[in-house]
Amino acid sequence: MLGMNSRNVDFIGRYNERRLFPLVDDKLKTKLLTQDHGIATPALRMTVTQQHEIRSVGAKLDSLSGFAIKPSKGSGGKGIWVITGRDGDAYIKSSGARIGIDAIRRHLSDTLAGLYSLGGTPDVAIIEDLIEFDPVFAGYSHEGVPDIRVIVFKGFPVMAMLRLATHASDGKANLHQGAIGVGLAMDAGRCLKAVQFNREVLLHPDTGKPLNSIRIDNWRDLLLLSARCYEMTGLGYIGTDIVLDRTRGPQLLELNARPGLTIQIANGLGLVPRLRHIESLDDRRFRDPAERVDHVMREFAPRKS
């Protein structure tokens, strides 16, 4: 199993140049980078950078029936509001709560003041398109959109898990708050194992749906999207968070230069053998992201007993 110290020294410290960290720590910079590199991601609708801009935000939101508000420098899902619809003057949050434009203005003001940013520094609010929930996940996530975390090392996707929101996690795909982590087979995106609070579970605790029947559509396309983030950022060890949109397919949600290690628990496997395998490869043979994806789908497929 990969430990925190080894992750920090042997992989993040060695393969991630510190000057490149702002490309993923700042969601706005990431968003602009995806546009330059043709990486699929929810469309950016507007940014709010100054407090005086908040007064006119209501008129700009009138044309949007659903959207997500995010702090550009936030972490751990803090400060993210997902608006799924409108009812007259009311905005409907993903939890079903109804709020007015004044609540949105206060939230934007708090965001710009740095309430949700790393270190409490002044921030920028991003407003982007809402992900259309893929029906393949119906009954598998509670009050939240599932996402897929893929660890990418030197451009090779090496391990993946699906994160499912629960009542305990307050609709957020955060494993530390009670979301379910589903380890995914690298060859086909099917469920290997599911855990909640580091304990194996067979059914979703809120919906009762069996977790072992999960299989991700467009799996190779999803891995290819994650692999291309290596060329986009230049970072050798990253976590890519991807969502499946009903009509647009895999979409990059955000990147993480310091991805956590609970993905190993969800998979029941350690990262170290896979990382060492990638280190042993001749980089000149795998300059094409598609070749890297095909290699890991073969090499890291579950072994038949």
Describe this protein with a few key phrases.
305 residues; alpha+beta; 7-stranded antiparallel beta sheet; 6-stranded antiparallel beta sheet; 9 helices; 13 strands; globular
Please give a structural write-up.
- The protein is an alpha+beta fold and about 300 residues long.
- The protein has helices spanning about 5-15, 20-25, 25-35, 55-60, 100-115, 220-235, 265, 270-280, 290-300, and strands at about 45-50, 65-70, 80-85, 90-95, 100, 125-130, 145-155, 155-165, 180-185, 190-195, 200, 235-245, 250-255.
- The protein has a 7-stranded antiparallel beta sheet with strand order 11-10-9-8-7-12-13. Strands 1-6-2-3-4-5 form a 6-stranded antiparallel beta sheet, with helices on both faces.
- Strand 3 (about 80-85) and strand 4 (about 90-95) form a beta hairpin.
- Helix 6 packs across helix 9 (about 290-300).
- The protein is globular.
- The two termini are about 20 Å apart.
- The model has no long low-confidence stretch (mean pLDDT about 95).
Distance between the termini: 21 Å
Q: Please write the string of helix (H) and strand (E) elements.
A: HHHEHEEEEHEEEEEEHEEHHH
Query: Whole-number radius of gyration?
Result: 19 Å
- Profile the largest sheet: 7 strands, antiparallel
What is the subunit organization of this protein? Answer: single chain
Shape: globular
Helical segment count: 9
